[in-house]
């Protein structure tokens, strides 16, 4: 029994029902009953099909393609729960896509990460759970409590079990170097960094230099998110020119739009692409080089601890 009001109530939007089912399997409970669909006029409709009065409600939605539709679904689900007198509403967002727009880095551009935070709070979210934000400062955009979970312990466990000989962890850029350092320390490996320059707003990247030694060693190329693959492909070219042997890619979020998964995994030097299931990966994008690690136990345990008023920070420990 969870807390004074029984089990938490867990509702799923349409972005990633498979992950929500795994989370509920971990918690040994059913998914909450809810309708979420579009009318013929493209308006989103939500109806909660069970009593949530004074219940602890968790609404799970990854902001994946179509991003804006899924954000709107989440906002309407939160509003429906608020109007149904839910006791507390927590938005669980495994992948927060607008975390990249965290500042004004060009004239006359928005800070969309902040805008989405404001919309979630206005809709009625009283707590937010996310996984490995691209920009950690997004937590500060919210006035409500935020728990940023990390998939790093799951990735560390996977690579420890691979038993690679004398690997080097390589950060895809300086921005991810702190997390890459923590990952390298956890698997007892040195760190190198790829210096890069992004070309405009077109997802094109030019890698400039490799800081550190990677020659004649297997490399774990580390990032928080892999999207079109421009960054990692450029980084692979840079480190293989420096003599790296096998290359393993490790990231929490595998967005992989279009043909990105095939474009990345057909590079001969890449042995594996290791990602988690924060973003759903259609079966047609899966191949023998892609390994997907589920974070359902992490999210399930976080939901359990939040519901019971226990520490979530203990989940961050890397063994």
CATH domain fold name of the largest domain: Rossmann fold
Domain count: the total is: 2
Number of strands: 14
Q: What low-confidence regions span 5 or more consecutive residues with pLDDT below 50?
A: none
What does the radius of gyration come to?
20 Å
Task: Write a concise synopsis of the structure shown.
This protein is α/β, with parallel strands linked by helices. It folds into two domains: 9-150 and 296-316, Rossmann fold (3-Layer(aba) Sandwich), CATH 3.40.50.2020; 152-293, Rossmann fold, CATH 3.40.50.2020.
Structural account:
The chain is α/β, with parallel strands linked by helices and 319 residues long. It has helices spanning 17-27, 67-83, 112-123, 152-162, 177-186, 230-241, 260-265, 296-308; strands at 9-12, 34-38, 44-48, 56-60, 88-93, 127-131, 146-149, 168-171, 191-199, 204-211, 219-226, 247-254, 270-276, 290-293. Strand 12 (247-254), helix 7 and strand 13 (270-276) form a beta-alpha-beta unit. Helix 1 (17-27) packs across helix 8 (296-308) and helix 2 (67-83) packs parallel to helix 3.
Topology:
Blueprint (H helix, E strand, L loop, with lengths): L8 E4 L4 H11 L6 E5 L5 E5 L7 E5 L6 H17 L4 E6 L18 H12 L3 E5 L14 E4 L2 H11 L5 E4 L5 H10 L4 E9 L4 E8 L7 E8 L3 H12 L5 E8 L5 H6 L4 E7 L13 E4 L2 H13 L11
Parallel strand pairs: 1-4, 4-5, 5-6, 6-7, 8-9, 8-11, 11-12, 12-13, 13-14
Antiparallel strand pairs: 2-3, 9-10
Helix pairs in contact: 1-8, 2-3
């Amino acid at each position: 029994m969870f807390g004074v009001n029984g089990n938490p109530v867990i509702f799923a939007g349409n972005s990633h029902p498979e992950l929500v089912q795994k989370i509920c399997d971990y918690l040994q409970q059913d998914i909450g009953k809810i309708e979420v669909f579009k009318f013929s006029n493209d308006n989103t409709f939500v109806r909660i099909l069970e009593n949530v009065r004074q219940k602890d409600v968790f609404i799970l939605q990854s902001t994946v393609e179509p991003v804006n539709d899924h954000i709107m679904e989440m906002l309407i689900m939160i509003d429906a729960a608020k109007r149904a007198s839910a006791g507390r509403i927590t938005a669980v967002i495994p992948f927060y896509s607008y975390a990249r727009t965290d500042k004004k880095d060009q004239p006359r551009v928005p800070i969309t990460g902040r805008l989405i935070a404001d919309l979630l709070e206005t809709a009625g979210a009283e707590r937010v759970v996310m996984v490995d934000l691209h920009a950690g400062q997004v937590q500060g955009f919210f006035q409500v409590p935020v728990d940023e979970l990390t998939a790093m312990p799951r990735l560390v466990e996977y690579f420890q079990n691979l038993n690679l000989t004398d690997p080097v962890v390589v950060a895809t850029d300086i921005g991810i170097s702190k997390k890459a350092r923590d990952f390298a320390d956890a698997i007892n490996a040195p760190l190198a960094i790829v210096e890069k320059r992004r070309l405009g707003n077109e997802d094109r990247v030019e890698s400039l230099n490799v800081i550190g030694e990677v020659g004649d060693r297997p490399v774990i190329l580390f990032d928080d998110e892999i999207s079109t693959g421009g960054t990692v492909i450029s980084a692979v070219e840079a480190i293989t020119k420096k003599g790296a042997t096998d290359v393993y890619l490790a990231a929490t979020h595998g967005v992989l739009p279009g043909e990105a998964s095939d474009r990345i995994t057909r590079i001969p030097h890449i042995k594996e692409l290791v990602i988690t299931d924060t973003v759903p990966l259609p079966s047609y994008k899966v191949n023998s080089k892609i390994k997907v690690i589920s974070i359902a136990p992490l999210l399930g345990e976080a939901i359990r601890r939040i519901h019971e008023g226990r520490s979530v920070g203990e989940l961050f420990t890397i063994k």
